[in-house]
Amino acid sequence: MNRRLLSMCGMMAPVVFVFTAILGGAMRPGYNHLSDTLSELFSPGSPNRLLLSTLHTVFGLLLVLFGIGVLRFVRESGQSMRTGTVGAVLFIAMALLNVATATVFPQDAWGSPPTFPGRMHIALSGVAGLVSMLSMLLIGIWLNRTGMFPGFAAYSFATVAAAIVATGFFAANYGKPMMGLTERIAALVGFQWTFTLALWIFTRRSAGAPAASFRSGRCA
Question: Under 8 Å CB-to-CB from 152, ≥6 apart: which residues?
Fold first, then answer.
């Protein structure tokens, strides 16, 4: 797969995620996007769980493919510092964790006895969030240092700060009427960063193009 196609995967992933959430809510009677978490759509015994888990897996695999594209972009740039490589690898790891939390380790249904997969779901979701933030920071720093995307490190720092605040609001509202809304806000904060990075890579014709070509609106 070429770099442009892989970057398209990064732009498509958030769209698939939002579509899965909307479809799952529409297909589940009584589901409330403001108060119910996305993970409830994949809980054991949930209506249409197979379909929704499959869509979520597609979402995760799109992220994996984009992560591979980022890794290739780093290596082909001629400036493959360890920061960029580690950031891309962490992005792939985060994507795989997202797949696992919806398939192998689904959230326990509300009111049901705790299970090992349910406990793992909570733990891995937290790990995925931390890995995602670290990936944003490292990729942003790498792009800023290479001069290919000036200011992207600051943008990444701001995104991580927003993600921390949004995650805090989600934790504070866990089990409360606005739990679902705060979870979605936290997810969308990360998705806008992924979409921006994917779009920028898509518009470049070569990984080693000088920074000036991006600032002037031309792709070298």
Answer: 140, 143, 144, 197
- Is there a domain that residue 156 lies in? yes
Cβ proximity of 63 and 13 under 8 Å: yes
**pLDDT tens-digit series, residues 16-63:** 999 999 999 998 888 999 999 898 888 888 888 889 999 999 999 999
Q: What DSSP string runs through 110-161?
A: TTSPP-HHHHHHHHHHHHHHHHHHHHHHHHHHHHHHHTSSTTHHHHHHHHHH
Identify the residue whose tokens are 């799109």.
62
Total domain count for the chain? 1
Specify the residue for token string 């995602």: 132
CA dihedral 172, 176, 177, 179 (to 10 degrees): 50
Q: Taking the model in full, what pTM does it have?
A: 0.87
Confidence band, pLDDT 50/70/90 cuts, at residue 219: very low
In angstroms, the CA 138 to CA 156 distance is 9
The DSSP code for 204 is -
CB-CB contact of 144 with 152 (8 Å): yes
- Say if 219 falls within a structural domain: no
Range of the domain at 162: 3-205
